[in-house]
Each structure stands twice: as C-alpha cells, then as structure tokens.
Structure prediction request, 121 residues.
Amino acid sequence: METKKRVLVFDDDKDILEICTYILEEAGYEIKTSENARNIEEQVGSFMPNLIFMDNWLPDLGGITATQTLKNNPTLKNIPVIYFSANTDIEKLANQAGADSYLAKPFDITDLEEIVKTHLI
Prediction:
C-alpha cells in the first residue's frame, strides 16, 4: 500500500486547524497540526511532512521567520511551504518568507485541495 503523503499545518486558529485536518484527512493525507512555531525545526523534522501550511500570525516566531528558518535548514529546505494568511498583502509576505506558494484566507475547499495536489505530485 502506498504511504500517505503528510501535511503539517501551522496556525494559531483552532477552527482553521480543524477544518484543514478534516478536509485533508478526507482526501487521504496524514495530517499533523501545531498552534505555534516553537522549535519549528524539531516539529517539522520529527514528522517530515511532504507539504507545510504556514500561517502568518504564529505565536513565538511568526510565519515569516518560521518559514525562513525551515528554508535555511539543509534537511528541511526542500519541503514546499504554502503561506497561509488573511492579510491583503499575502503574496508579498509569502515572497518575503521564501514560501513556495500561498493561499489566502478565507479559502475555498477546492482551492485548498488544488494547491495541495499541485505541490504533492
């Protein structure tokens, strides 16, 4: 049997985490969520996801610093990071963070599924 693709979602909003978990588990992915960016490299390294969703407003590091930390880590830098925010300048923030793509909140379920498929080929 094929191994499930893993998705790690960082967001300080429990509702968003629950929605993402539900949608992505239904789509057949293994999901892990975190409400903070504490020990970001450890959190990501212990799960080794195929894809990461990174909220902008994260306790501890914040999404930009958290993403940059991952992108500067030789072991983790190739994991695609989708920047995830309700900010109007999300594209600019995603670029500043070095994210691979972005998804604006509130998002459409189809958009979430599409962006996951695009990055998990």
Summary: The chain is about 40% helix and 20% strand. Residues 6-116 form a domain with the Rossmann fold fold (CATH 3.40.50.2300). The first helix runs from residue 14 to 26.
